[in-house]
Amino acid sequence: MWGAVAITYKLTCPLAQQHGLGARIVTSAVFFAVGTGLIVHVRRALLRELRQLREVAGAAQNVLLRPLPPRVEGLALAAGRLSATHGASVGGDLYEVAATDHGVRLVMGDVRGHGLAAIGTAAAVLGSFREAAHEEPELPLVLRRLERALARHMRERSRAEQLATGQPVNGATASDSAPAEEFVTVLLVEISRAGDVWALNCGHPWPYRLRGRAEPMVGGDPLPPLGPFPLPAELPLAHCGRLLPGDALALHTDGMEDARNAAGEFFPLQSVLSEAARTQPVSPQAVVHTVYGELLRHIGRLTSDDAALLVLRNDRHRVPSQQAETGRRARTMS
Known about the structure:
Structural class: alpha+beta
Oligomer: single chain
Largest sheet: 6 strands, antiparallel
Order of helices and strands: HHHEEEEHHHEEEEEEHHHEH
Number of strands: 11
Strand content: 15-25%
Distance between the termini: 72 Å
Radius of gyration: 27 Å
Helix content: 40-55%
Shape: elongated
């Protein structure tokens, strides 16, 4: 339309055929108006397309890392995430909570790096957990399912990269060429009806228990991250302690504790959690809000690593005897 206006003026308007100063000024004004209108039209179209793309991306990201329900099996939940990728709310961090017949199961993980490749790996691990958490009776079996899903995803990604570069692909080549530097740290947690916290840790930070202050819930030496090395034959469950009614549990990725300010000082996550836990009863939403507010004030810029935080509070009023449960969980799975 704007082009038609300019051509019509040039061919039909008498002023456009004159060479005087006044005619030239009018012609310049007409073409300036046409150019301005064209730029405004293109800008509006691009902004509209960008807005639609963001809506689609937001919907896709919420499917991958969907919002958690406020309550699951007597546990109050809240979670937050901060992506290092500009314009994205999801990166290489992942978390999920599932209420199963075997207890409430949680996963918190961190894919090496961030960006589109990390999002694809996170999707593979999360998809496997959402099925295995309900199907597998023991937590070690869930972890083995995650390991197989990650290995399959890396083989498929390597095969796709080889096809894109024109390299020959066969079964052996695709398997052997999976990126050795790729790995995922994973923390699997199961909370029994008695409030006992059982965990399997593959190179991930241990959680904190919020009971007036933040206390690390450590269950021994962690296993290596998933990816570079196969899991050992035996996977002993770690008993990290108990969540009494009113206690809260905070799971996080290392993007929290590794965040630095301009002076190179690390973010004091435990101190911030302790301060947030002083207000009783602990509110998961308030803890998440406080931690991210302090994190952004500490770094003063866009974070260089993804940072995720999941907080849950035990709202169960009665904690039954856990003797039978402890005896059952004391064994290991091979």
